[in-house]
Amino acid sequence: MKKLTVLKSLMITMVAFLGFSLTSCNDDRYEPVPVKLSDMNGNYKARLVTSQGGKYNEKIIEFAAKDSIITFKEFPVKEIVKSVVKDPVKADTAIAHLGKIEYKLDYTSKLNADQNVVELTFEPETLTLQIPVDGTIKNTVVKLVTKQKGFFVGYDWSMRFGLEAEKITVDGTDLTPYETIKYEIPISIKN
Description:
The chain has three helices and eleven strands, in the order H-E-E-E-H-H-E-E-E-E-E-E-E-E.
């Protein structure tokens, strides 16, 4: 009988302890870490959504942000080349010959402490490519623009922005007909 009383007492104590341990604290409020302009510097892995007309393409890319410059070591040029070179086999050959294309995107940043974000205003430069086709070089100039601001979000340390290839000029002549190529980075995580 003594063993049963001790066992019941032990069980009641364990249930009471478990009940108290599962109650939440009243101080469970999220306090965001205030973002600083220097927090943006670093390497990122991003989901890139490229669209032209009704065609969409997604891939994972990497870029670096430092001192008001975003550097793409491998800027995606597939859609640009395929807009210039209509033959798919020749376009794939040209893409292979181009290799990795580096592109630097300048920006200015402004801290928005109320929303805990850094707002980015971009100043895109033109992208110049020399696309080899049938033994000749097509000198291609791509006018890149940004239609809206980008953001570095302090909540999850991610960067979000977009670019558009608004116009392509080949050997001094505007490419027509041409559909705008959109490069959107809905989320990128700092490594």
